[in-house]
């Protein structure tokens, strides 16, 4: 992980948030390459979830909702984690996640030992609400207390009727949304894994009760396949059905896609839940609006994943070393740059001209990058490290026969390809 975090900073994927002010815990900023990678992940998700299907439409709801939304959804009452605080150093821990054990002693009763200052503490964990509060309005006394959304899903449920009334969707259908969510996590950490502000990719897929189990199975498989199709190592990812006692009381079933993380072993990458009719029923009750379809309340299947957590999985999965070289074997569709273009030598004007014009023509079709620093070997390694799948070099032979070498990141093999064929060559590979 240290190597990945350092690579991410050095090459401009991810920077610590507010770094020049000493950092802000649980926040990270995406650099130029991280921004491209995240955009590509979102694009692939949107493509497979919305644009390539006939039964899912998109939505982009606001981050701030009416406070009643969170009452109805149950977040005010129960979007909590068990918090335990040391009476001496005041460090806070998430019970069940951080390494805290409660001991039982005949004389002392219940106690626990603070992992930071080793103080003996008594007391049980208390519920800590993870929603960030903010206020609406400029006058403090009359301001309304609001929450930053901890998930995008509720924005979908409250627009259920709007979507039905303004589009031609018929059940089964889904509404998908990508947007920021905020959670005041007790403990953040493991790089992008658990942060306080993150983008989420969520789908609420509405189905007729009775068909929900089938759709649940379908979406579990769809979502697992999405990762596999984007190159995630099959032995590092799996679907896990959670036992009844670990899932929300209203859930008809919850599964998770787990990844074998280097810092904790198997753990959640994405959640997929059969939420039954809980959300629509709750919002019907609280809003007084009848959120139904053909006189029944649909059930909903919800796949939900954080962009950053998915990005971490793709980065960890792609990271490899060959000798002292680092190769980031990102799927070409996720790679920030698809092609790097070089001139074999920098001081031969004719070669540089030719390479530059090829670069501009490729760039009009794919994200391409120009590099003229150092020698050709160093340029290959620099591109390997940021996951660029192909490097194109214009050399002396190019001036004779209009062919270039295309070097493959993963095999280091070079192939001669005619310039006129390059567009189709890459288009085919990116398919
Ligand atoms: P966990 O307990 O693993 O943090 P959760 O069960 O609270 O997650 P859900 O509410 O199911 O998470 O959220 C759906 C998805 O959103 C998660 O699978 C994960 O990909 C992402 N996610 C949730 N919390 C965070 C966070 N604090 N930082 C980054 N991603 C998160």
Automatic annotation (TrEMBL):
Residues 2-336 form the Aminoacyl-transfer RNA synthetases class-II family profile domain. PROSITE patterns: AA_TRNA_LIGASE_II. One of its GO terms (molecular function) is bis(5'-nucleosyl)-tetraphosphatase (asymmetrical) activity. The keyword ATP-binding applies. Pfam families: HGTP_anticodon, tRNA-synt_2b. This is glycine--tRNA ligase. One of its GO terms (biological process) is diadenosine tetraphosphate biosynthetic process. GO terms for cellular component: cytoplasm; extracellular exosome; microvesicle. InterPro entries: aa-tRNA-synt_IIb, aa-tRNA-synth_II, aa-tRNA-synth_II/BPL/LPL, Anticodon-bd, Anticodon-bd_dom_sf, Gly-tRNA_synthase/POLG2, GlyRS-like_core, tRNA-synt_gly. Belongs to the class-II aminoacyl-tRNA synthetase family. Its EC number is 6.1.1.14. It comes from Candidatus Amesbacteria bacterium RIFCSPLOWO2_01_FULL_48_25. Keywords: Aminoacyl-tRNA synthetase, ATP-binding, Cytoplasm, Ligase, Nucleotide-binding, Protein biosynthesis.
């Amino acid at each position: 992980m240290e190597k990945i975090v350092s690579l991410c900073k050095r090459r401009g994927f991810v920077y610590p948030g507010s770094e020049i002010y000493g950092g802000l815990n649980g926040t990270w900023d995406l650099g130029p390459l991280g921004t491209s990678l995240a955009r590509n992940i979102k694009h692939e998700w949107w493509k497979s979830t919305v644009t390539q299907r006939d039964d899912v439409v998109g939505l982009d709801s606001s981050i701030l909702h009416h406070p009643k939304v969170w009452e109805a959804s149950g977040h005010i009452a129960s979007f909590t984690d068990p918090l335990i605080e040391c009476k001496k150093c005041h460090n806070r821990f998430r019970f069940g996640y951080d390494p805290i054990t409660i001991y039982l002693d005949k004389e002392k009763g219940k106690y626990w030992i603070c992992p930071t200052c080793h103080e003996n503490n008594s007391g049980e964990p208390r519920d800590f609400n993870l929603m960030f509060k903010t206020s609406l309005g400029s006058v403090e006394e009359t301001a309304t207390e609001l929450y930053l959304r901890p998930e995008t899903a509720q924005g979908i449920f409250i627009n259920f009727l709007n979507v039905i009334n303004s589009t031609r969707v018929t059940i089964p259908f889904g509404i998908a949304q990508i947007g920021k969510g905020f959670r005041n996590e007790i403990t953040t950490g493991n790089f992008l894994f658990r942060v306080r502000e993150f983008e989420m990719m969520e789908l609420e897929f509405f189905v007729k009760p009775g068909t929900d189990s089938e759709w649940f199975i379908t979406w579990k498989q769809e979502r697992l396949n999405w990762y596999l199709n984007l190159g995630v190592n099959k032995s590092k990812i799996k679907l896990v059905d959670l036992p009844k006692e670990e899932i929300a009381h209203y859930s008809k079933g919850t599964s998770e896609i787990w990844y074998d993380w280097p810092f904790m072993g198997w753990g959640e990458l994405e959640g997929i839940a059969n939420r039954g009719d809980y959300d629509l029923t709750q919002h019907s009750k609280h809003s007084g609006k009848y959120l139904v379809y053909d006189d029944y309340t649909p059930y909903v299947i919800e796949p939900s994943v954080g962009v950053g957590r998915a990005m971490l999985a793709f980065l960890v999965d792609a990271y490899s070393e060959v000798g002292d070289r680092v190769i980031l074997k990102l799927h070409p569709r996720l790679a920030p740059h698809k092609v790097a273009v070089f001139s074999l030598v920098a001081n031969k004007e004719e070669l540089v001209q030719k390479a530059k014009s090829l670069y501009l023509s490729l760039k009009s079709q794919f994200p391409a990058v120009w590099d003229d620093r150092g020698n050709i070997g160093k340029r290959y390694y620099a591109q390997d490290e940021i996951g660029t799948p192909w490097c194109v070099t214009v050399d002396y032979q190019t001036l004779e026969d209009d062919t270039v070498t295309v070097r493959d990141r993963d095999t280091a093999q070079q192939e001669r390809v005619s310039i006129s064929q390059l567009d189709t060559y890459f288009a085919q590979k990116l398919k």
